[in-house]
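Notes from hallway chat w/ T.B., transcribed later so I don't forget. T.B. wanted the structure written out for a chain they're using in a teaching module, and asked if we could keep both sequence and structure tokens in one place. Agreed to drop them here.
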Amino acid sequence: MKPQNKGIWKIIGASSLGTLIEWYDFYIFGSLATVIANQFFPKTNPTAALLSTLATFAAGFIVRPFGALVFGRLGDMIGRKYTFLLTLVLMGGATFGIGLVPGYEKIGFAAPIIVLLLRLLQGLALGGEYGGAATYVAEHAPADKRGYFTSWIQTTATLGLFVSLGVILLTRHGLDSDPAKSIAKFNDWGWRIPFLVSILLVGVSIYIRLKMSESPLYAKLKSEGKTSVNPLKESFAHKGNLKMVLLALFGATMGQGVIWYTGQFYAQSFLENVCKLDFDQSRTILIWAIVFATPFFVVFGSLSDKIGRKWIMIIGMLAGVLLYRPIFNIFKQDTNVKEWLQQDLTVVKQDSSTTVLTDKTLAVTKTVFQNQANMQFTEIKTDTLHTNNIRIADTKPVYTAVTLNTSTYIKFAALVFLLILFVTMVYGPIAAFLVELFPTKIRYTSMSLPYHIGNGVFGGLTPFIATLLTTIYTNDALVGLWYPIIVAAVCMIIGALYINNKIDPNVND
């Protein structure tokens, strides 16, 4: 049966809005990792607090496969529409709940435990949402344009991150007319606002989704009495289908997951925590990159209808394997605090707590928040400059905020755009690829599991594992990149050898 094309854009709009909101809910936690670390964990060890926060962030990914099993089964038994309505309600409630949890200083270790439980609920909900939305759109779309139409759903993950970053920045600077006071209020209690407003977005999406009809392919299956009685058994106990599940995981979604989370989340984490980039700049760089890269999800999704899904995804993985270390090395070199602190620098502004220094070689302005107990200065007065040239003898700053000048900022935004371009190559065609691997009656379950293991376990752990590696091997700031590089390389080889480039889009309908 060929699905009807009537009203496809309304279907895509309704499905995409709900999925975008769920991604917003899910990723706002990661976007605020540094702030949340100070709220829900002891402040005595900032590195441990950040790792604990990233671990809590990763926990939401780890349970996504379980959500895929639970909600995938429901989706194949009772339908796509009501299943991803349920996931939307759960996600919205959990996100709203995180915004209400008291901090560590008020309720102690109960705070991170409650947040972890809510984060697990978020992961379960997202495990059911994506597969439902992708399947729903794919089953409405013409088979020869399935890559194009499902690629619009693929934009929602990145756009959800974009919205979360935008809401955070607007909130951070809108709490007081005095910028310093506004930021202080945000770090104290304003960070809760992005979590709390999500309930309004969820309400709008639920209203829209209630008006949607069931997928035509599933409705036909149900009317003929051919729906699956036990989707889990049919998906994983039958050798042929299990083979497709494993191939989807190790030949596509595993590599796609690490490319996604390296290009967007680890890039932001690296810029903020390793390069010590200014809070606003680290996020606006990502926002600009997302704005210019997002259309390429649709470009590569549409291209996959014409030339096949496989090689587009393989090339995206190869690009990450070859270029991650060179790109991240540029980030490091252009903001290398340790090397910069060892040079003779010029003071351009100084007060009791802050010294702003310039270095013409790196074309970067760096603000060093001094701790006089840890930093010693040797003053060399010069009448010509009417200022002080200083050399830092003991280079152990408490915190360093790096502010890029315009040209370096643009260069960083272009490099992050390139990282996200790799994401669009692997992610744009993936929904159509997964849908076409599995029969309609077990599609929701079968496609959701490999997707969420690949993205939730392999991809979602990327920021945590990469950050952990940099704390173990402290002499190599780029050591964390070996994790996504190795995973993507293995997946690329398996996919190149065993995945067919052209899969008949009608064979499983």
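Follow-up for T.B.: Residues 338-399 have pLDDT under 50 and may be disordered. Might be a good example for the class.
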